[in-house]
Amino acid sequence: MKTQFELVEGSVRGLVQWLKLGVEAVGAGVIGFGILTALLQLLPMLLRRRPANFTAVRLSLARYLALALEFQLGADILSTAIAPSWQQIGQLGAIAVIRTALNFFLSREMKEEQASVAEEVVDAKADGK
């Protein structure tokens, strides 16, 4: 017969697993929505058959990817609460480090792209366009 502590622990583990699944699903949904948004922005550019600047599309998609990475990292943190072994905690830690690094470099690239776009706008205004 299970003790009261074991019953509560099992319930908490089950709740955390469902919460983790929900957070992962939100992250996946954000990625899907971001891809759909980027495609809707990209299609008119491709149909014009003229050289296009895809920076706006890249920035839009990058924002969704960065947000999704935050949700996925949150799910990883939830996983550490129910990881029964040090090996699983180590694997989750490695995944969290990789996702954090991806998010860092993605954010840095977005800032560089935004600065580039702002510089192009200033140059265009200075040229009188």
Brief summary of the model shown:
With 129 residues, the protein is an all-alpha fold.
What structural keywords apply?
elongated; mainly alpha; 129 residues
Q: Gap between N and C termini, in Å? A: 79 Å
Strand content: under 5%
- Overall morphology: elongated
Largest sheet: none
Structure description:
- The protein is mainly α.
- The longest helix has 45 residues.
- The mean pLDDT is 87.
SSE map:
Layout: H1 4-48, H2 55-82, H3 86-126
Helix pairs in contact: 1-2, 2-3
